Amino acid sequence: MELKGFAFSVVEAAIKKPGRKDLALIFSRVPAACAAVFTNNKVKAAPVLLGMERAAVGSCRAVVVNSGNANACTGQPGMESALETARLVAEGLGIDEAAVIPSSTGVIGVQMPMDRVRNAVPPLLEGLGHSSLEDVAKAIMTTDTFAKLAVRKGMAGGVPYTIAGVAKGAGMIRPDMATMLSFLVTDAAVEQSWLQEAFRAAVDVSFNCITVDGDTSTNDTALIMANGLAGNPPLSGADADAAAFRRLLDEVTLELAKAIVKDGEGATKLVTIDVRGAANHKDARLAGMAVANSPLVKTAFFGQDANWGRILAAVGYSGAEVDQSRVALSFDDVRMVSGGLFVGGDAETRGSAVLHKPEFRVTIDLGLGEGRATVYTSDFSYDYVKINADYRT
Amino acid sequence: MELKGFAFSVVEAAIKKPGRKDLALIFSRVPAACAAVFTNNKVKAAPVLLGMERAAVGSCRAVVVNSGNANACTGQPGMESALETARLVAEGLGIDEAAVIPSSTGVIGVQMPMDRVRNAVPPLLEGLGHSSLEDVAKAIMTTDTFAKLAVRKGMAGGVPYTIAGVAKGAGMIRPDMATMLSFLVTDAAVEQSWLQEAFRAAVDVSFNCITVDGDTSTNDTALIMANGLAGNPPLSGADADAAAFRRLLDEVTLELAKAIVKDGEGATKLVTIDVRGAANHKDARLAGMAVANSPLVKTAFFGQDANWGRILAAVGYSGAEVDQSRVALSFDDVRMVSGGLFVGGDAETRGSAVLHKPEFRVTIDLGLGEGRATVYTSDFSYDYVKINADYRT
Question: Hey, are the CB atoms on B300 and A215 less than 8 Å from each other?
Answer without folding.
Answer: no
